[in-house]
Amino acid sequence: MNVPRASLRASCALALLLAGCGIRLVPTWGPVSTPEAPQAIGPYSQAFRAGDTLYLAGQLGLDPATRELVPGGIQAETRRVLENLKAVLTEAGFSLGEVVQAQVFLADLADFAAMNEVYATYFPKDPPARATVQVAALPRGARVEIALVAVRKWSS
Length: 156
Description:
Elements: H1 5-20, E1 29-32, E2 47-50, E3 53-59, H2 74-91, E4 99-106, H3 112-122, E5 129-134, E6 144-151
Parallel strand pairs: 4-5
Antiparallel strand pairs: 1-2, 2-3, 3-6, 4-6
């Protein structure tokens, strides 16, 4: 596709003007990635934006810098998982308040109460719909994995 130079210059000028005003142009379709969360360990994206909806891949309690599981058990892992997810949401211009659905995978349902205690602090008001299941195993020996779906909130 051939884009006329004048059109390209105008688009670049608009982008620079908006950036100078603190407005960031965000693509409405495509993968989202941030170094503030662990990079994908397979052929998938940290998240994928489709219009006003953001689908976040499951995150483990991995430290983004070391890519190792954080020590401290289920509560520490849950906190790290949610911080990783929050970083991806932020990169895409979303917030925890726009999360509408969560999927929680636990290696042991006996950890439910401890996970839930931490989880509740991240969604104190209008928590998203959620499913929580026990799985046979999680990658890297993790105790918890959480995936989210967020939908853009428009203020009136």
